[in-house]
């Protein structure tokens, strides 16, 4: 009798956080996050007051910071507890990050900034083709690929940062307050481009912003204070 071969199922959960605790140092308060699960395709608007810990949480999810307690799984793989080199590899392959300041390398060209992300994820020769495809979808002209990142406007830098974050078709995109330097029209155009690209690839998005106007782009809104509690340090006198 022939039995149907069942393909290995891909995980539906992108992130699973359990019993997480993180403090910047022994004198600092700890962020405590008992549980947070994020399913594939969710688009989450994460908000909360200044200093509440939104960037800290994104950095933990990106594996840039490592919790002292608890675990973070990425696509069912241990992420926070694996070796640094393994975490760097998983981040490069599965996570795109857009930082507040975009963090482009100023003296490198636009194309080289994007190529660098593809290189870390060990993408082959097709990376340039993907890069140009993304630049077109983000409505940037071809000539800009050879320009140094330092010569771009804020709006252009922002779109290049998105292209760099999406070049490896990540399952998870983490975006930290990227629209603060833009006027209302540029901001709305940027949000539409970003979310259309994520829709096309079913990318899971966690988007941090103070701007309540941006919340309307997201069906799911999460207040950081609902997720995280703050534990004061034990002071030794
Ligand atoms: N590198 C660091 N070392 C020590 N403390 C830090 C560090 N980075 C952030 N913090 C502290 O952690 C807390 C949370 O900061 P975080 O930047 O995550 O907040 P946020 O919610 O993103 O704030 P904002 O909305 O103003 O960007 C703050 O009290 C901040 O002072």
TrEMBL record:
<protein>
    <submittedName>
        <fullName>ATP-binding cassette domain-containing protein</fullName>
    </submittedName>
</protein>
<dbReference type="GO" id="GO:0022857">
    <property type="term" value="F:transmembrane transporter activity"/>
</dbReference>
<dbReference type="Pfam" id="PF00005">
    <property type="entry name" value="ABC_tran"/>
</dbReference>
<feature type="domain" description="ABC transporter">
    <location>
        <begin position="15"/>
        <end position="236"/>
    </location>
</feature>
<keyword id="KW-0813">Transport</keyword>
<keyword id="KW-0547">Nucleotide-binding</keyword>
<dbReference type="InterPro" id="IPR003593">
    <property type="entry name" value="AAA+_ATPase"/>
</dbReference>
<dbReference type="GO" id="GO:0016887">
    <property type="term" value="F:ATP hydrolysis activity"/>
</dbReference>
<dbReference type="InterPro" id="IPR027417">
    <property type="entry name" value="P-loop_NTPase"/>
</dbReference>
<dbReference type="GO" id="GO:0005524">
    <property type="term" value="F:ATP binding"/>
</dbReference>
<dbReference type="InterPro" id="IPR003439">
    <property type="entry name" value="ABC_transporter-like_ATP-bd"/>
</dbReference>
<dbReference type="GO" id="GO:0005886">
    <property type="term" value="C:plasma membrane"/>
</dbReference>
<keyword id="KW-0067">ATP-binding</keyword>
<dbReference type="InterPro" id="IPR017911">
    <property type="entry name" value="MacB-like_ATP-bd"/>
</dbReference>
<dbReference type="InterPro" id="IPR015854">
    <property type="entry name" value="ABC_transpr_LolD-like"/>
</dbReference>
């Amino acid at each position: 009798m022939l039995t149907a071969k069942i393909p290995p199922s891909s995980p539906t959960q992108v992130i699973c956080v359990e019993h997480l605790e993180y403090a910047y140092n022994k004198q600092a308060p700890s962020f405590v996050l008992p549980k947070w699960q994020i399913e594939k395709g969710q688009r989450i608007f994460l908000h909360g007051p200044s200093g509440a810990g939104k960037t800290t949480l994104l950095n933990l999810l990106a594996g840039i910071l490592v919790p002292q307690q608890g675990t973070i799984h990425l696509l069912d793989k241990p992420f926070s507890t694996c070796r640094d080199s393994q975490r760097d590899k998983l981040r490069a392959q599965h996570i795109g990050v857009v930082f507040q300041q975009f963090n482009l390398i100023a003296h490198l060209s636009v194309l080289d900034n994007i190529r660098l992300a593809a290189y870390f994820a060990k993408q082959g020769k097709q990376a340039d083709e993907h890069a140009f495809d993304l630049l077109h979808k983000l409505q940037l002209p071809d000539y800009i690929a050879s320009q140094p990142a330092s010569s771009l406007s804020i709006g252009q830098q922002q779109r290049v940062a998105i292209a760099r974050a999406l070049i490896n078709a990540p399952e998870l995109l983490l975006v930290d307050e990227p629209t603060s330097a833009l006027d209302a029209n540029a901001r709305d155009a940027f949000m539409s481009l970003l979310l259309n690209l994520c829709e096309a690839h079913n990318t899971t998005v966690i988007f941090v912003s103070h701007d309540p106007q941006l919340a309307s782009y997201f069906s799911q809104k999460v207040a950081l204070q609902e997720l995280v509690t703050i534990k004061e340090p034990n002071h030794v006198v």
